[in-house]
Amino acid sequence: MTIPHLKEQEFIDFLKDNGCVIVSDANWEDYDRIILKKDDVTFPLQLQKIYYYFTVCKICEDLHIEPPEEHLKVLQQIRNRKKGKK
After folding, report:
1. For residue 33, what are the CA distances in angstroms to 1, 27, 44, 48, 56?
2. How far apart are CA 86 and CA 67, in angstroms?
3. What pLDDT, in 10s, does the model give residues 66-83?
4. β-strand 33-38 against 41-46: which pairing, if any?
5. CB 70 within 8 A of CB 4
6. Phi, psi (degrees; rounded to nearest 5) at 6
7. What pTM was computed for the model?
8. Which residues does 85 contact at the CB level (< 8 Å), separation at least 6?
9. At 44, which helix (H) or strand (E)?
């Protein structure tokens, strides 16, 4: 099984395709962050080479964006597995 992930530019493009805009990338070289905005919510995005499914799903959840299907599927499998062990 491969772990679902998005590369940095793929994730930024995904967020842009779902209503986010980059409002500042002025200090990305110093702080490894860009500032994005969706609707009235402004947030920093820590730049990483790879964003794994958990991070992608968490950010999507916070922004009320549907995460990529394979990311959500793996997250649900893990949550269901944890529920079964309790």
Report:
1. 31, 7, 6, 9, 16
2. 27
3. 999 999 999 999 889 888
4. antiparallel
5. yes
6. -130, 140
7. 0.88
8. none
9. strand 41-46
